[in-house]
Amino acid sequence: MPLPSSARALKKPRLDDEVRFLRSWIEKPLHMGAVMPSGKLLARTMAHYVDVDSDAPVVELGPGTGAITSALVERGVDQKRLVLVEYNPGFCALLRDRYPQAKVVQGDAYRLRDTLWNVLSAPASAVVSGLPLVTKPMLTRLRLIRDAFTALAPGAPFVQFTYAVVPPIPKSLPGVSTEASERIWMNLPPARVWVYRKD
């Protein structure tokens, strides 16, 4: 039985996003955190760690087509709080169209200090990352989390998902507390969310 037109309309953006992701992954596989956008359950799990009652900025690294961004907005994060750091200019244009009140920054999240130096008006209440950290050398990962903690308010979370079994950043960092979600089996591929806070 064919889908009603309203159901087809809802499915079309997701299909379009999957095509965009796949095309970008084929062109530059190491720049993409995934072949497809994050699943809804994974995106909601990441958004769960963000304080919706704060007025402080929420920085999202590598938002792509906005799967996690959408979960943040649905959770109650005001678009005006969002600072979306995206490397791909095509995704930046799409994000500006979908989230017109958010601040979209075309830049390199792995050079976060340079990318955000004149962007944030206050320390961030969360940094949410969809970056492919496990494809990067450990020194690059450690520099990223150091720069993220510089941008964050004390005790605010750095939230990162990974498909890998091991954490993307070691759990034994001095002065950093770590927690992990249950494995999200409903995501394809299964993923886990890791949360890091500077003590």
Automatic annotation (TrEMBL):
The keyword Transferase applies. GO terms for molecular function: RNA binding; rRNA (adenine-N6,N6-)-dimethyltransferase activity. Keywords: Methyltransferase, RNA-binding, S-adenosyl-L-methionine, Transferase. Pfam families: RrnaAD. CDD domains: AdoMet_MTases. SUPFAM superfamilies: S-adenosyl-L-methionine-dependent methyltransferases. The keyword Transferase applies. This is Methyltransferase. It comes from Bradyrhizobium nitroreducens.
